[in-house]
Design goal:
Elements: H1 2-14, H2 17-34, H3 38-41, H4 49-54, H5 63-91, E1 100-103, H6 107-116, E2 127-129, H7 137-157, E3 159-166, E4 170-172, E5 180-184, E6 196-206, E7 214-222, E8 227-233, E9 238-240, E10 243-259, E11 263-268, E12 270-273, E13 276-282, E14 288-295, E15 308-314, E16 317-321, E17 327-329, E18 332-349, H8 353-370, E19 375-380, E20 385-390, H9 397-408
Helix pairs in contact: 1-5, 2-5, 5-7, 7-8
Amino acid sequence: MDDQARRKRIGSFLSSPRLALSILIILATFIGVVSWLPWNLDRSVKAPSWALAAGLDRPFSSAPFLVAVFLLLANTLACTIERTGRAWTLLKGNIPQRGKVLAVKTERDFTTFLKEQGFRTKSSPPYFRNRFALTRGWLFHVGLVLLILGILVQQAYHDAGSFEIGEGEIVRLSDRGVIFDRNAGLFAASALPPIQLALEQFDPYLHQEGYAPDRASTVVIRTQDSEQRTILDRSEGVSINGVSIYQAIPFGLALNVEIQGLGLRSLHLRQESLRRSAGEFKDPSGGSILFSVDAERDISDPLGTGKLRVYHLREEVKTELTLGRPFAFGGKTARIVSLSHWAGFTYSRSPGVSMVFFGFVLLVAGTAVMLIPAGIAAEEDTTGTMRIYLTQDENNLADDWYRFKNRKT
């Protein structure tokens, strides 16, 4: 008996409106505070050590946020379990004690009145009006449970990051240094996706009808057991083995350099001005070398950059380079094979998104069901009365019955 009472107290606590309100206040306060933290407003600001220790550099994947969402899930689930019992009782035709009791003279009067109220009277009692809508808030609560569970799973297990590929370049996402700006949930897989990508072609000036000038890429995506060639643009990504890949906004010029004994390397330059891109790179000897490219027209000009001139700066000596002509590169010989573009991409693993969408659909459906009137009615034995339960307009039932009786007389 003590165990049963303890379980009942726990259930009452978990389903209490006061707990739900407290959790919502805590979540609202947490979201309001962390959204204004400097490192969340500006990515260039580094989070202090105490924030890193508390997980507040990624606040919506941190333990405090996940615990609060879990408690909200427990509260909503407890409420849904309670509603499940009540909904099942109504669907079986059990009329609650709070149902209205009306005096009747004949069964014919009873069924005629019910038919006017929208009840199905062809079957045996109890009689139902829109029986499926007796669940009312149950479907809404199920959708809410799935929505919160999806958010919890998504924030705990999501994984996303950025990477870049030059035209003609091949990268493997799991290789060191390929992924940057990674954002992973508290329980996300530590291993990066074992996917290889090659950028065949990149168009930085794509103009789709109905869209602003944008980008498009032709990529080849390889996994352990499949390969697919696809075109990515900003309006739609591609999914493979649970990983979604999207075209990102950043792009720039790339120097494709062949280095003696090391093969081909794609050096991604950053735009410094309208007509100049540059980048500093490590050479094979461990030193650094600065490459720059000056364009005849703006680098982002849809008509093209015009003539490009390539330079490298080493030990404050600036030298112009030409395609195919060898030059010294950290104790080795190198030559520029071509100039092309590099393009930015993002990947994401979002295990909870489908659950969030399904929960949202059930929320909408549950809201629609709550707008549909429903009811149960049955004649009480030997008492000359009928009991009716309505989900809507129950207070007007007595007036409707009064008008019906006066019409009959």
